[in-house]
Amino acid sequence: MIILDRAPSLGPLLALGALRSPLKKPDADAPFPRTGLLLRLRPDLERLAAYERVCGFGPGDDGLPITYPHVLGFPLAMRLMSAREFPLPLLGLVHTSIEIARYAELPGDGTYDVSVHVEKLSPHRRGTEATVVTGMRAGEDVVWESRSTYLARHRTRHFGETGRTEPGTLLPLVEEWRIAGDVGRRYGAASGDRNPIHLHPLTARLFGFPRAIAHGMWTVARCLAAHGVPTAADVRAEFRAPVLLPGTVGYAAENGRFQLRSGDRVQVEGSVRPRVAR
Predict the structure, then answer these.
(1) Sign (positive/negative) of CA torsion 16, 22, 27, 28?
(2) What is the mean pLDDT of residues 219-241?
(3) What is the pLDDT of residues 49-91, one digit of tens each?
(4) Residues contacting residue 171 through CB under 8 Å, at least 6 positions apart
(5) Which of 192, 190, 43, 39 is nearest to 108 (CA)?
(6) Nearest to 167 by CA among 93, 88, 258
């Protein structure tokens, strides 16, 4: 584990990742960096407030939103994924799923040790997926963990299963959301994730999308803000189809499950379960 004394700067990492992307040869059997990164930090309350606004969380709520530690760990993940040794191209990398376990309330003014490492590469019918694990400790206690998958799309001979579950039945519609065209830029400013597929139609088209698409983590954060999450909880979400910007989607929920969809097409599907205290 490499201990950092400051958060990596996202702008240079994105530029470096962009320069190295054409040289990458993604393959599920390729070697990848095994050494993780560790950083001690305190959340920036101004950025936290901007994040809460764009995602729909109530301003001034006690504790970090359940998705916010992902933002805190993102610069470390970017450093790993922009490295020469990481075999997938950073540009065009798509977040496909996340599992989160929150064990305790996370005070916004707390001090945390955040760690990130790449767990594995897996074949996918559309390319290769990387699994990235993020953990957060308060003192000696693990208070939050996540496991994310990121897809690099490329030609592949793999046609097997990807570990995804099939979409469930359509849940009852709760409300309709009109998503503005600048949500990708606003979320990028609050989170630091300025992947060009989220920012502008022209840059999104370079990677095969007709328009800019919403960040996967914005869609799940927006759903969880509407759904509500217990202090100790397990969350799982799969990003099944892109949410185009601007656009109109339906938010649906029932019995701890939620969906974001356009008509009958499920774009995001997930669940929230209370967690028994350890």
Answers:
(1) positive
(2) 96
(3) 999 999 999 876 668 999 999 999 999 999 999 999 999 998 8
(4) 252, 253, 254, 257, 258, 259
(5) 43
(6) 258
